[in-house]
What we know:
Layout: H1 2-26, H2 33-57, H3 64-83, H4 90-135
Helix pairs in contact: 1-2, 1-4, 2-3, 3-4
Protein name: DUF3021 family protein
Organism: Clostridium beijerinckii (Clostridium MP)
Keywords: Membrane, Transmembrane, Transmembrane helix
Amino acid sequence: xxxxxxxxxxxxxxxxxxxxxxxxxxxxxxxxxxxxxxxxxxxxxxxxxxxxxxxxxxxxxxxxxxxxxxxxxxxxxxxxxxxxxxxxxxxxxxxxxxxxxxxxxxxxxxxxxxxxxxxxxxxxxxxxxxxxxxxx
Length: 136
């Protein structure tokens, strides 16, 4: 059970971190080791929050789930601005919130592809099991 959640958290963290880093490179932000560690910590936090929201707060199928997640991420970025002394202007904060929405959409698309692959594998296993049952 714990391994299942750990696997989900690590998979989501890697996807979120990769997409955030790509967006940082596209927007020509400076990425030093400290900044990368901060982004990794934020990605892990975002993944943990997503798992907690899905498990304990709002159903995964609810329309409010992504909305709550995006709001929490925006609040975390605003808090990180002060915590990590990023000194972001109001305009930069607003553009970051737009980036958050774009990143969320990208991550959802990537996760959709992962889920599609998982469903395909499960269907193949089910078909193999049915075929083996019919042969016996």
